[in-house]
Write a structure and sequence with these properties.
33% helix; 82 residues; two-stranded antiparallel sheet; alpha+beta; three-stranded antiparallel sheet; 23% strand
Length: 82
């Protein structure tokens, strides 16, 4: 997936802190949040038991947007990759 993003010139950051990035959150149009165990992969769709929770709440979506923006702006713990 990372290679597809790179080829499409989509900026990518990787975490460089001591923990693991394990967030599974999607924010759509600052109106809907999804979260759960679901990985965006073929095996998750075909073989795994997964949970995907869809939260149609623009207040929550804006809060998660703020969390994402704070992480994106953190140049110490999250660095651009080429």
């Amino acid at each position: 997936m990372v290679e597809k993003f790179k080829k499409a010139s989509i900026p990518i950051k990787m975490d460089h802190h001591s923990g693991y990035m394990h967030l599974k959150v999607t924010i759509a149009d600052q109106k809907i949040v999804t979260t759960g165990s679901f990985n965006y992969s073929a095996s998750a769709v075909r073989r795994s038991d997964e949970v995907l929770v869809v939260i149609p709440d623009d207040t929550m979506a804006k809060q998660w947007t703020n969390v994402f923006d704070d992480m994106w702006e953190d140049d110490k713990n999250f660095l651009f990759i080429n």
